[in-house]
Amino acid sequence: MVQELVIAIVGAASAGALYMAAAAKVVKQYERGVVLRLGRLRNDVRGPGFTMVLPGIERLRKVNMQIVTMPVPAQDGITRDNVTVRVDAVIYFKVVDAASAVIQVEDYRFAVSQMAQTSLRSIIGKSDLDDLLSNREKLNQGLELMIDSPAVGWGVQIDRVEIKDVSLPETMKRSMARQAEADRERRARVINADAELQASKKLAEAAKEMSSQPAALQLRLLQTVVAVAAEKNSTLVLPFPVELLRFLERAQQPVQQQVRQPQQAVRPPQPAQAQRPGQAQRPAQAQRPAQAQPQPSVAPAPPPASAPAVSSATAPARPPRPKPLARH
Question: Which residues 6+ apart lie within 8 Å of 30 measured at CB?
C-alpha cells in the first residue's frame, strides 16, 4: 500500500510539473501576448513578464512591438515625363495594437511589404524625374501617407519611408552629364565675361588717370618688370618707352644737318685737258670742217675667225680720236 501510494504521489507530481511547464509562459519586454481561448480573443493582452495559460484551451501569440526596418524591393516604372527608372526604398514601422495585428491581417509584415511596393510604383508614375532626384522629402511624405492609410486598421503605424536609390539608364546618365557640363560651361563663360567687363572698366579708368600723368605709365611698367622678374623662370624683354625714342631722334637731327652741309658745297672747277699743238683754235671735241678734203676710205680688215664677235651693246665706248689737219 505504501509503495503504491508513493508511486501515485510521484506520478501526480510529475503530471503537475508537466502541466505547469506547459502553462507557464514568459513575455519579453518588447513583446505583447495575445491570448485566444478556444479560438476566441480575450480582451486582456498579456504584458511583459511571467504569465500562465491553460494548455490545450488557450493559445498565446507573441507580437513584437519594436520598430521594424523593411527594405522595399526595387520597382521599375516610368515617370510622368516618360523616363524609365528603377527605384527602391526602405520603410520603418511598428505594431501599436497587438490584437489587431493578429486578428485583422494574416501576416502584417507581408501586407506592409506589398502595400509599400504598390505605393512606390504609384509614386513613380505621378512624379517627374527631377522630383525623384531632388525633391525626395515631398515624395517620402506622400509615400508614407499612402502606406499608413490601410495600415492603421492592421494595428501598424508607419514611422518613416525613405526612397533609397534611383537607378537610371546609361543613356540617360550620359545625357544628364552632358547637360550638367554644358550648364557649368555656360555659367563659367558668363562669370568670365562679367569679370572681363569689370576689368575693362577699371582699366579704362586707370588709363584715363595715367594719360594725365605720363610718369605713372613708367612706374607701372617698372612694377610689371619687378613682378615678372620675381619668378626667375623666364626671359625678360624690356621695351624702350616711346618718349625715349623720340628724344633720341630729336638729338640726332642737328648732327645729320651738320653732315649734309659740306656735301652741298660748290665743287672747284676741274682743269681743262691738255691740247695738242695745232689744235688751239679748236674745241675739245673737234668737228670735221666742211672745207676739209675727203680722206680715202680704207676698208677695215675683217676680224679673225677665232675672235668672238662683240656686240655693240656690250662693247665699251671708245673716245673719238682727233683727225690730223689736211696740208695745203
Answer: 48, 64, 65, 66
Q: How do residues 157-201 score in pLDDT, each as one tens digit? A: 999 999 988 888 888 889 888 988 999 999 999 999 999 999 999
> Phi and psi of 267, rounded to 5°?
-75, 145
The string of pLDDT tens digits covering residues 211-228 is: 887 777 778 877 887 887
Distance of alpha carbon 328 from alpha carbon 320, whole angstroms = 24
Q: What are the cell numbers at 315?
A: 662693247
Q: Residue 114: name the closest of 60, 81, 154 by CA.
A: 154
- Give dist(CA 48, CA 29) in Å, integer: 5
First to last CA, the chain: 216
